[in-house]
Amino acid sequence: MYGSGKYSSRGPALIPRMKTKHRLYYITLFSVVLLGLIATGMFQFWPHSIESTTEWTLEKGSVHDAPLIRLPGSSPIPERGDLSCRMHTCFDVYRCGYNPKNKIKVYIYPLQRFVDELGVPISSTGLSREYNDLLSSISDSDFYTDDVTRACLFIPSIDVLNQNSLRIRETAQALTMLPRWDKGMNHLLFNMLPGGPPDYNTALDVPRDRALLAGGGFSTWTYRQGYDVSIPVYSPLSADVVLPERQPGPQRYFILSSQTAIHREYRAELERLKEENGESLLLLNKCSNLSQGAASARKRCYKGQVYDYPQILQESSFCVVLRGARLGQAALSDVLQAGCVPVILADSYILPFSEVLDWKRASVVIPEEKLSEMYTILKSIPQRQVEEMQRQARWFWEAYFSSMKAIGLTTLQIINDRIYPYAAHTYEQWNNPSVVKWSSVNSPLFLPLIPPRAPGFTAVVLTYDRVESLFRVITEISKVPSLAKLLVVWNNQNKSPPEESLWPKVGVPLKVVRTKENKLSNRFFPYDEIETEAVLAIDDDIIMLTSDELQFGYEVWREFPDRLVGYPGRLHLWDHEMGKWKYESEWTNEVSMVLTGAAFYHKYYNYLYTYKMPGDIKNWVDAHMNCEDIAMNFLVANVTGKAPIKVTPRKKFKCPECTAIDGLSLDQTHMVERSECINKFASVFGTMPLKVVEHRADPVLYKDDFPEKLKSFPNIGSL
Amino acid sequence: MQAKKRYLLVSVVAGLLFLIYLWGLQIEEFPQQQQQPYQYPQTPQHYQHHQHWPESTELLEPYLEGGEQEEDSPQLHHQHTSPRERRAIRDNIYKNKRCRMETCFDFARCQSGFRVYIYPPQRGDTISETYQKILSSIEESRFRTTDPSRACLFILAVDTLDRDQLSVQYVQNVRTRIHNLPTWNDGRNHLIFNLYSGTWPDYTEDLGFEVGQAMLAKASADVANFRPNFDISIPLFSKDHPLKEGATGYLTLNDAPPSRKYQLVFKGKRYLTGIGSETRNALYHVHNGDDVLLLTTCKHGKEWEKHKDSRCDRDNKDYSKFDYQQLLHNSSFCLVPRGRRLGSFRFLEALQAACIPVILSNGWELPFSEVIDWRKAAIIGDERLLLQVPSITRSVGRDRMLALRQQTQFLWDAYFSSVAKIVLTTLEIIQDRVESHVSRNHLLWNSLPGGLYALPQYSADPAQFPFYYAILGKSPSQQFTAVIHTVSPLQSQISPVVKLIIAVAKSKFCAQIVVLWTCETPLPPRHKWPSTSVPLSVIQGQTKTMSSRFLPHDIIATDAVLSLDEDSVLSTNEVDFAFIVWQSFPERIVGYPARSHYWDSSRSRWGYTSKWTNDYSMVLTGAAFYHRYYHYLFTHYVPASLLTMVDHMANCEDILMNFLVSAVTKQPPIKVTQKKQYKETMMTQGSKASRWADPDHFTQRQTCMNVFSRWLGFMPLVHSQMRLDPVLFRDQVSILRKKYRDIERL
Fold first, then answer.
1. CA B625, B631, B632, B635: dihedral to nearest 10 degrees?
2. Interface predicted TM-score (ipTM) of this complex, two decimals
3. Are A390 and A381 in contact (CB under 8 A)?
């Protein structure tokens, strides 16, 4: 398309050169247009025409209408699959490309029914309900593309979930028939029940070249770490039975074994455990008196007593998941759904999604050999931890086991994470239940550093037109030893700042920034001029802080660089009568905010305030010309989960609350407005992030009976 | 002119027609994409979704016949092989190259705990400096045993670090040496350290001897040969790497938003021929001379001129223009491409410099990848996609960069800064495998203070540690246990300990009081103790030693411990306030009397002072709150030799506790305010039997400081200049408004 556009635009450009040669011009023009037509036609129609035919077959209404493909008996069989395959050796990453969304594109082959030369299908069941669900949910997801040329990953619509129903050789032949097979490169197969009697291989026996395998029941010897994906064995019960989420805590039974197909030696071992430890163990088996069928799958028996399965699982703290002939067991899924902690006894088993899930938080893995010690091992786990595991088990089921959709999309996300590791989901995203995600905080400045004193701090003074007071503030601050720079934010657009010669002479660089608009948020803008980590925000009328107090404030900030460290403290309170938050500036024993009329903080918070403030808080502040300090307190408390630090005793501050001209009335409207801010911000944040503390920081020797001249900060607390 | 106009007209018309044609194509393309899904609609309501997959009209069969895994049922034939036989078969098949813990490790040897035995060296052995460091870090560790019969893990005395046959440090007779070991047993339960394997030109991972069933702790491990959860990938470190606490990370302050001059740098050798040459040879494509500086030199080895290519001279010139250290400190990202082997020194250098590593080494099993989540500290690239690297690094946002960079520093400090840390991490990983139900989960390994300080034997549940409350969205329990250490007999109802018990029991946060009776006199009868509203229990220690005051008694169930000397004088108000403060700082020691350390440059050693100073770095545990985990850490982490020393002197246990907690947290303790009049009494006289009166007492403490810092390899104590007071402390306001009145009353 680009090419043709260029051709046509060449027309006018050619005119001056071909003034006299009419014919030549027309011929050229004609041929250019013709060429353009041919070229675009080729680009546009060729690939599309091929796809649209394949696409059509996919849209068949019924599975049984899928076209029938006859496999020639002589068609090639892929290689068995290479155990040394890794993403960097067997996966063509160029197909995935670099894209800003960091999302792989997945193509699903249209549905076809393969039969051999005699017309016998390659699989006894054909497309299963589960595989159909899987493909359909992938095709509805963001991963899906119907453009085979753009796809990074290909999923055959040949169902290999259960190897039992497959004819191995013919299935393999069918795979090679896929138009983009190319030695299985970038192809993904889903299999839950691998192997077959007598030896039950732990990976799918169908030869598959380099195809990736999402398999249920891998052992450490068949699993190609970082290439294959270990998936759960889906339990069909999940779709039918609703188990309510259960409150974690001690249960009726301590250990429960519900599997029916346990090797008799292991069953004998479990019986022995039950004899030793009695009632706390429940050992269920198949009900002998019930007829076979789906109903029997929902019942378990112990000595003639019938229990409902899987409901009974909810009555135990631990549930045994023993290996059968295969390592992967659908029982694991049931156990997790019940919120019972799985005790996994399956040596060398690769747990589902173990690449991203931290199973130590949700399960206990015990070597098969130690089955007899199971009771002792489980008894040694403290109850609090068991409850945590119960919660985690249930969450794993909800997020990753509950449906074929969950299983399929998790698998794709894991592969996506490998291809775009720099944009991968984090451990916390994978493993924290939403309730933990919501309440957990990890301070953005989490490294416990005490920054060196030497770089000092930058004082940012917000001013409008109170020049006299501003100059006094500047003169006072300039006496603080660690002051590195003064930055005056001139917020008055109608008046120019005073001439340079009129400013007080100070020993540090002094810069004036003029703002475009008179907005309060200008105070927290991440100015390039701020080079130090520490910022002192100070109002142009705060003249009562002594040099010792400011220097001490800076020292305290160094010990708590991720917090707001300020002088006047404030408190938020829950007003039971009104049912909302209230702002409090009285003499209280508690503090949850410090005013930014005089406060130290890390310059990173300027960036957060300006660019990452949730909702419309920033605009609200600018519109109301109030509460920027409360907003900052919310922001910092929300990302750190920590309270601010109030330093030094209370003094008579010339604070907004006290400047009321006619006393009480203005004061009260101000308080009402501040209370409103707190309620507004709490609703935007969706929670009340502020933390209440009962301490303030003073110098070690404050008010101690000790010679003043020997104290580092003697001049503190004077009114 | 006429002709010109006509040409123009025709051309414009032609152009227009063409545009219409193109537009037509677009239109056609559009419905093509949109309509496809609707071609065979099932039900009209599906028009809204972008349905790609056919809705099946008929009921499909479930994949699992009968809803159960029937083939596992006991009737089937495989059930005749017993699980025991099956395991035996497995153990026989999966040997050597396919070793796993299940098949090649004898767990039975570890029944009596995780003990490590080092074979005695033979005469005439040449052991490289680096291997000696590895051996001494194991010797000093708490895992070491001298009894091979009790050992779970065996370490060779013969140096296997450098297995490059062309190297001078290559040890010749390793094969025979190893196979002659009486307990070699085909390498079972042995751990072999290796930094270099293979040699020019192919650098295969050949060690020159049969590893058998021994575990390999190896640098530059290739995933192709790596036995997952059996071998351990260790980082390549230089021979100058310190034995103990080495240099700290370079990041001294959180430069946020990060602003470093360069975006991406690399400085290193370029290989003109042979393995590993492709990646480094291609680097010049990405080098832009401005903020992406990828500098290579071909000038190394003897015969470089022979293979010299056209770029060599220019490269060499650029190469000498920049100083490597300067680049490291001034770049946001550092490229870590493979060299001849997969790992390179660049990795640790970048990590230490807080320069986010961009790893280009396909197939490299990253160091300690079993436990460390490298995505949190590095960008893992693909050699095949070198050209994307600059745009990937530029797409990393400020927040992420800040987090990545801090994580590099945490990981460096926690696992890599010294040989001892690398070795201990290796051993701890193996210990975690040996007892998997008491092992660290991912969170413990990847968040502060790191796996080496979080002992899973205490608890495998992160919520029981003082470090993870915020991450888990939890808070410590609202109560504390007071532990009173008594050394003198209970004389009367007015003895200080009785007063103390009464005052502490009155606190609404107090769950119970535990008296550690370490007095030689027999235990006074029950009625002699004051009656309290909270349970009071007395533990008569078997060992009446100083260090036993920090034993992790099971009876202590609360997160917080209030540790008290019998002669401490505290009011209920003071206890309440300190506990409230502790809840904000659960990982620190929060207490009353404080002490300080200083560097005595005249004697070049650490000094201890109890004078009133403007700062402090220790809080005495005679009256302090801290998390109960520190009891466990003190008892199990500190080497026995130091505990013996403390017991022997009956002194310094509080200093040791402060050292330990500060080493873990890298933070100072917190001093809270105290009723003034008590200060002198506590400091000068104490009770008559007080050990404080002993003139040797002070000198001993001085010595302790120096012994403890030698053990850690550094001075962990940090000074603080502040004290925490109640918000209204000494404020000019009615005392009735104050919550903690007693603290101010004289």
1. 150
2. 0.88
3. no
